[in-house]
Every structure is written in structure tokens, then in C-alpha cells.
Write a structure and sequence with these properties.
single chain; Arc Repressor Mutant, subunit A; 328 residues; alpha/beta; globular; 3 domains; Rossmann fold; two-stranded antiparallel sheet; 15 helices
């Protein structure tokens, strides 16, 4: 327990509080049970630590814990809450809940019912897992989803400008005041900055002084999603995991990519239904985005109308062959 507390203090103390993601100000932090889901790398962990540092400081009433910590090998979330509550704790921030070995849905439900003045915020990168769990917690849990950086956020994070969100009225203003204010605030032409954003702007860990590490980190995010997140909630053979990586490689080098399930089945050497299941898993993992037609039976095994990479940075990390039409 002591190591868990020291780790929490060290991580919270080291987090920066100069910039916050858009979702930070939209969350009702007073709610007793909050879910924050999103793909790996979009800033969920940083947001939890920022909340503790900004709201609670070092007083110990709030605790951060990652569920892949070795402490949870022999201990449960309810044990942590019991100890923390008895020692004056009021808020627990749990990261990577899908990596927890036990039945966390039941434990969170019991904590919610047994500790009426205790608050829990939890995050997860496995949206397959979290979406299925939401049904059990629907009456108690307030869900949010965090996406990657918008172009506006990228400009702010990269230090090009400090732009606030625009209202619809601002955008529709016939005098174009908002547009001119943005143009005048930028040090370069908008299109050149936007082109930069399309390749290295979706994830908030971009560092202009270490550009070579950016794509390597995205590759590691993809690898972790395939080899850790997906197996944590699906019984998947090792060969299938390898073929998920193979599928992404084929898609990234087939430029421009056109969806042909039969051709992909032959290249990956799996059945048609397996290809469609792979699309579903990679979509839930935040790597691909599947678009379906307006109507389909929930129980049907229908192929998506179109398959896109979730963001253009994943495309850039996997291949140098990206054609501008595919990027758009």
C-alpha cells in the first residue's frame, strides 16, 4: 500500500498543468462514478493526474492508481477503497481499468452503493470492454469519451496560438471576424500548419524536438492495443493477433485503399467473417473506423461500407505511401 501511495504522489507531482484537453472542462467532476474512455495515447492518464494536482494537491484525500500495478495482483479495488476511506480518502482515480484482473464492474457497483460519499473516476483504452460494462453500471455511471487533438488544440499544444472554441454563431458570422482573428494569430499560413497537423498532430505527446520518436510511439500504441487490450477481453489466438497486424500492414500499403473483403481474406488467409470481426476489434481499439450503411440488422454479419484509419497519424506511422485523397 505504501508503494502505491508513493507512486501516486510521484506521478501527480510530475504532471504539467499548463495545458488541458477539451474534455477536462466538460466533465462533471462532482459525479460519484465517472467513466472516461478513449484510444491509447489521447491523454486520459494525464487528465486524471492533472485533476488531482489541481483540485486536491498533496493532502492525500485523492489517490491515483493504475490497474496494471502489481499491487492489484493480490489485492482488489474494494480493498483499496476500504483502506483509503478509513484514512480520510474521498476520491479514487483508476487508470486502465480493463487491465484489472477481477470483476471490476461488480466491485465498482458495490463501492457506489456502500460508500455514498466516495467518488471514483476510471479510464480505459479498451472500448470493447468498457462499452459492454456500461450496461451493468448504466444507472450509476456517467460516461465520457476523449478523442485526439483537434486542429485548434494542436495549434495550442504546439505553441502556435492560444485559440478558444468557437460558437456556431461565431462561425456563421457574415463579417468573418472569427476567421480573421485566427489568421492574424497564427505565425504561418493556415494550410501549411494544417498539413503538419495531418501527419503529426492527433496525439498530445508530440514533441517537436524529438520528431523521430513520435511514429515509434504510435507503433507501440498499436502493438499494445493488439497484443494486450484485445486479448484482455476477447479469447484470441496468437496467430489471429499476428494477422491483425498483417491486416493493418496490407491496408496501409494498398494506396488508395479500397474495401474488398474477398481480396483481404485471401491476402490474410482467414475467412470473410474473420476479416469482419477483425475490423470490429480494431475499430473498438481506436485504430480503425468502420462506417456502415444507414440500415443493418444488429445481428447480421455485414461488412462496413467503408474502412478508414482512425486518424491520419496512424496512417503516417504505418506507411510512407499515403495518397492525399486517402488522407482527406
Amino acid at each position: 500500500m505504501e508503494n502505491l501511495i508513493k507512486t501516486s504522489q510521484r506521478l501527480v507531482n510530475s504532471v504539467q498543468t499548463n495545458t488541458f484537453r477539451y474534455l477536462y472542462s466538460q466533465i462533471n467532476w462532482d459525479d460519484r462514478l465517472i467513466m472516461i474512455k478513449g484510444a491509447r495515447g489521447v491523454g486520459k492518464t494525464t487528465m486524471l493526474r492533472q485533476r488531482i494536482k489541481e483540485r486536491f494537491g498533496p493532502n492525500g484525500t485523492a489517490l491515483y492508481a493504475s490497474c496494471d500495478n502489481l499491487w492489484f495482483t493480490d489485492n482488489r479495488i474494494v480493498d483499496l477503497v476500504s483502506w483509503h476511506y478509513d484514512h480520510g480518502g474521498t476520491h479514487l482515480y483508476l487508470d486502465e481499468i480493463h487491465r484489472y484482473g477481477g470483476n471490476w464492474q461488480v466491485e465498482l457497483k458495490n463501492i457506489y452503493d456502500s460508500y455514498p460519499d466516495y467518488h471514483i473516476v476510471f479510464t480505459g483504452s479498451s472500448m470493447i470492454h468498457l462499452d459492454s460494462a456500461l450496461a451493468d453500471l448504466s444507472r450509476r455511471c456517467l460516461p465520457y469519451r476523449l478523442y485526439g487533438l483537434s486542429f485548434r488544440e494542436y495549434l495550442n499544444f504546439a505553441g502556435y496560438a492560444n485559440l478558444s472554441p468557437l460558437s456556431l454563431a461565431d462561425v456563421l458570422d457574415s463579417n468573418h471576424k472569427a476567421e480573421w482573428a485566427i489568421i492574424n494569430a497564427l505565425p504561418e499560413k493556415v494550410l501549411s500548419l494544417f498539413s503538419r497537423y495531418l501527419g503529426k498532430g492527433y496525439y498530445p505527446f508530440y514533441d517537436p524536438d524529438h520528431t523521430g520518436e513520435y511514429y515509434g510511439r504510435i507503433e507501440r500504441l498499436i502493438d499494445t492495443t493488439i497484443n494486450q487490450d484485445i486479448p484482455s477481453i476477447e479469447t484470441v489466438e496468437q496467430e489471429t493477433l499476428h494477422k491483425l497486424s498483417r491486416l493493418l500492414y496490407v491496408m496501409s500499403t494498398d494506396v488508395p485503399f479500397t474495401l474488398n473483403v474477398q481480396s483481404l481474406s485471401q491476402k490474410i488467409q482467414v475467412s470473410r467473417n474473420s476479416i469482419i470481426k477483425m475490423f470490429e476489434l480494431l475499430d473498438k481499439g481506436g485504430i480503425l473506423r468502420c462506417l456502415y450503411s444507414g440500415w443493418r440488422s444488429p445481428k447480421s454479419v455485414a461488412k462496413p461500407g467503408k474502412i478508414l484509419f482512425d486518424n491520419t497519424d496512424i496512417m503516417a506511422a504505418l506507411s510512407t505511401l499515403n495518397e492525399i485523397g486517402t488522407v482527406r
